[in-house]
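Box 3.1 — From sequence to structure: S8 family serine protease
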Amino acid sequence: MPDEITLRLLLVLIFGFGACFGITVGGAAASEPDLEIGPEVAEEAETNETVTAIVRFEASAALDTEAKAGPATMETRANDTQAAFVDFANDHPGIAIERQFWLVNAVSITVDTTAIDFERSVGRFEAVSEVHADFEVEHHSASTADGVDLAASDPAQSSAATEPAAQLTSQEAYTTGIEAIAVPEAWERAGNRGDGARVAVLDTGVNASHPDIELAPNGWADFDLAGNRIDSEPHDGDGHGTHVSGTVAGDNGIGVAPDAELFHGRLDDDGATFSQLTAAMEWAVKHDADVISISLGGDSRTHQYVEHIQNAHASGSLVVSSAGNNGPGTSTSPADVYPVLSVGATSQDGEQIWPESSGEQVFKSEWDTDEIPSTWPDEYVVPNVVAPGADVRSASADGGYERKFGTSMAVPHASGVAALLAATASEELSPEATRDVLAETTDDLGEPATRQGAGRINASAAVDAVAPPTEPERAEDHYTRDDGSIAVFDAIDDFQNDRGAFAPGSTVEGSIFDVINAWNSLDDPETAVEYYTRDDGSIAVFDAIDDFQNDRGAFAPGSTVEGSIFDVINAFQTS
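Predicted structure (token representation):
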């Protein structure tokens, strides 16, 4: 039976030299293998003389406390557990190690099924847990507006045509998507636009010569299908990666975090192999990326990604991934891996869910593996959040601008906001904390959780949740003119126009503001509010000012009043 013989041969190559050579493998005597063999690998072994596969070993550090030590610990442990297998491969020309990985404890191999005597006994390596194909994932973008109601979007931005670079500043200050998630307000609140944060985009490449895109030093890496590094200059033959990179960190109104350090790991134009994506994620983690932005995905419940995410997060890198473009009741991996920040898409203006955006309830029991962490909930929702993904305007590979659709376009909005949080937080945020903040500060669109997750990202609210308290500004400081005089009437006007800008209870000092701050110096104290309140309930503010100007001794600093117009002076500190 040729098919059965060929599969047995593959098992010999992967697991079996223990029985063949009378030795112990991985700490246990060779025996009949008892592990999962992916169907794609089995099928390839039945039909081809050369078989490519991923051999997985016991989890490197994802599910234990050693993960906190970061990449160095993972790499050491991976090398240790892979050593026996690698030695065997090096000694046998019928099996070649294409690449060793450490973010996941795995090796990529190529097997010549004609080079080994398949009649020998089949053994196994104790540390090997699974063999699967070097499967592929694809980008989550669409080139047209199929199924999208653009009526709620800005009509001026409904074209799908590519635009030259010169047109952006003449059309808008910011893209509609950036405004929809309150990014300009977030910049003002944070006092930065992502300074110091690092975002690694893993995509089709980037036009680093685009006038609005700047890569960080050593911010480019190119990987072949086997995950090996290619020596190349930044480029993008598809445009997807440049568009995504522009939304993350582009300048000139297209990027959420234009001052963040941008890294780009190039995958394939259509997506990525398991090896490519793993190698690129390792590169991002080693470069201390705060955020890893992945606008791609494959079959849902692909448990082979769990270790990637656990280890990346343990190293401090938040993984952000697109939910998919297959509509309600669906999701993709790695977005459906619980710790990931999974992102769905809204219309351009953020007011409605993009119809093709994926979303569903995920049950822990659906994962076909025993290695799902016990900390995962029994059920959860994909996506976690949504962001603009329809008709998104960003950089094009030819140096201009273009519009694209898909959850691929929503992800960089979320990745950029995560970068703003990393740049702003008063103390370092873990990936889990960042994910929680983004979910807890969303705007509710009134859609089911399986469509909107927690809601639409609100960058300003998210930044406000992690930013250190602002240094209070005294009313006196705010209303003091260059010549030292006090613009009292401006303060009164401001209060009358926006009562919410002032909160009672704060204290100021000096100059005309003492009128309100200290009526209690009188022998029989009467609050300024009571003293200057007319019969009709209005406040005689100008009488108070006149009294102060005529008799400064009538007021002593340090006392406190409350209510009505006097709050202008008593509490500018919330502004």
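Summary of the box: The longest strand covers residues 215-223.
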